[in-house]
Amino acid sequence: MSANGSSETGCRSGVRLTNDTCSQKELSVTASVISMTVGIFSNSLALFILVKSYNRIRIKSKASFLLFASSLVVTDLLGHLVNGSLVLFVYSSHKKWEKFDPHHIVCTLFGACMVFFGLSPLFLGSAMAVERCIGVTRPIFHSTGIASHHMKRLLGLTWLLAALVALLPVLLWKPYTVQSSRSWCFFHMEEPKDWLDVLLPLLFSMLGLLALLLSIVCNTLTSCALLQSRLRRKHHCRGTSYHIEMICQLLAIMLVSCVCWGPLLICVIILSTKAKDEPASFSLLMVVRMATWNQILDPWVYILLRKAVLRKIFMLLQSSWGSKSHNLYRWQRSILRSSVETSNSGAGPPDCPCLGRLPLPDTAIKSIT
Asked: Which stretches of the chain are assigned E, i.e. beta strand?
């Protein structure tokens, strides 16, 4: 609320601004406040659910997955807190960087946080996809060769890599610059002066795209392996239930990351490799706001795509489709009757243990006896 009031004061100050400009400022501040509030609430709720599941789960593979998932939610939560606070501070100072940041400290911190909290979720998502791919395709190696301290080291390396990329502009004396909208800081994107102005944004974008590509490949391999094991009936149905839950969550995270981060990463590549005569702040700011929704949608994947929630949704759908379930029972009864007749004629019993989990009506049981 204080940010809105400060923006109104800036509109009424000595510089004459139009009503459209004032309304755009108020709209930007309001959107930032709403995004920050929703993001903190969503990630806090998802973190509570994941920590509760992590304390309850004793399966090693799922414990590793929940460790990465909890770290991803914590990273998103800190991203909303830090970046949101910096945005509100900039708006409350009327975007006068020359007055409140004469030594370029706030801009450097802002740009480094934007890069770190942008790359970290992408790296964590790819690490989760790799871990699940190994756990499903190489279960013996995953259970014997990968310990919990290996997962914690991998988690630390992902954060360290993201921090290193975020600190590269400072280490190479190519500091972050205030963008044309004067509401945030990022790489020097307009009219690059030397090869470092091109290399740093390209490194950011290429690492992000590589993480997305790695997630797509690993999740595809894992999904195909689970589907193949189901078709060949190599695993018991109960043994792969938590694998399927994690794969659904990973696919949702991958889809959200591609939709939210893909435009920004591609836009950064285009802007950094192409000389421009006019500022591209509007397009860049729009894709940045689109990327922030990744940190809002990620926690809802863990909130909604859980077995308990999916089971309740399935039960509601099953109760609303009473007539269809009745037809399903009739179909099951006919299939079961034909299988009994086939077994009486000398054929072997069906080899799918998963059918035993489907509820059968009393009439079907009577037909067997």
From this structure: 177-178, 185-186
pLDDT in tens, 306-337: 766 767 766 777 777 754 555 545 545 554 45
Number of domains in the chain: 2
Residue 177's DSSP bridge partners are: 186
In contact, 307 and 241? CB cutoff 8 Å: yes
Range of the domain at 200: 2-315
Q: What is the tens place of the pLDDT at every residue in 137-149? A: 888 888 887 888 8
Cα 355 from chain centroid (whole Å): 34
Q: Is 143 helix (H, G, I), strand (E, B) or coil?
A: helix
CA proximity to 181, closest of 34, 27, 37, 35? 27
b/e for 156-175, b at 16 or more Cβ within 10 A? Answer: eebbeebeebbebbeeeebe
Q: Is 362 part of a structural domain of the chain?
A: yes
Q: Is 344 domain-assigned? A: no
Size of the chain in residues: 369
139 with 198, same domain: the answer is yes
